[in-house]
Amino acid sequence: MEILDRVLDFTALILASIALGFLLQAKSTPKMHLLRRGTLFLWLVVILEIVEDMVEIPLFGFAAAIDDEDALSLEIITLCQAGTALYYISKVKNEKALEFLNVSILCSIWLVMAYALEVILGLVFLE
């Protein structure tokens, strides 16, 4: 089961990196299709994170998820970062103001860093 968790985390890392790439491109050349692609990949990250939680809780039990506060807080932090990035992308689309894109890019950078640490530390502690 640890392998499945690592595969889902690595997939989320790739999706978050792609979303960050599209947001950075949208910052340099402001085009709406780049924002839409970034939004799509961020939504895929959110869906993948929820699916990962839905798979882990029935297999390990909710009590095991509660006992591992670090893993649970990391899951919540990554969902909050992705949600914040999506919120500010929607503000960019609605208000046509690119200054909100900086916050979304910053949240996406932190999201990529969180997944990278999760993958790297998961490989280090995988026995």
State the major sheet: none
**Which shape, going by the Cα principal axes?**
elongated
Q: What ranges have pLDDT less than 50 throughout 5 or more consecutive residues?
A: none
How many helical elements? 5
User: Portion of residues in helices?
Assistant: over 70%
Radius of gyration: 15 Å
Give, in order, the helices and strands: HHHHH
Which structural class do the helices and strands define? mainly alpha
Total strands: the figure is: 0
Q: Give the N-terminus to C-terminus distance in angstroms.
A: 12 Å
Quote the average pLDDT.
83
Share of residues in strands: under 5%
Note the main attributes of this structure:
mainly alpha, single chain, 127 residues, elongated
